[in-house]
């Protein structure tokens, strides 16, 4: 054990050694708790990540191109088949997007037309469908859709009759959000229904109806038109 007189003799030496330490080492112990106490600044969150539960309601208008080999016969399928003429297409749509880039949508449309025969009588084609929509979270927004529903036709019984078939569809298009409240939209669809061969008692095959529309939608819940925050 060191004598008290020895400790007293070493005290000046230890004090001199501590005084010679670099200032950075001397301050390190004091600065460390303060650095830990400072909270790191949060990174800004992009607006599209903040946008939840958006609603889009709109109308559509365009043209419907019925398939010549359709199976929409409420009477015995005639030979040769009777097709529908291209018709003006109008309708409504409602979309729900839990986030900006994915959602679900329902659409309904009506297309006044005629049966494509000599002195063809008036007819109406109509549809109701739902689909999943995937889109880019940008102002100019390409998108794709896929889903199903029903597609039907109605005319004088001696021509085609009345019938509703199940339908599948795929499509895509482009939205332009002119503001956070309004979007302009262009769509294309391939609507698939059982064909004339199936209606005549043959094997299942599909007729492809084309649809091209223009529309305007009103938007609720979107906070901006840009994808990324600029600070």
UniProtKB/TrEMBL annotation:
<protein>
    <recommendedName>
        <fullName>Outer membrane protein beta-barrel domain-containing protein</fullName>
    </recommendedName>
</protein>
<dbReference type="InterPro" id="IPR011250">
    <property type="entry name" value="OMP/PagP_B-barrel"/>
</dbReference>
<feature type="signal peptide">
    <location>
        <begin position="1"/>
        <end position="28"/>
    </location>
</feature>
<keyword id="KW-0732">Signal</keyword>
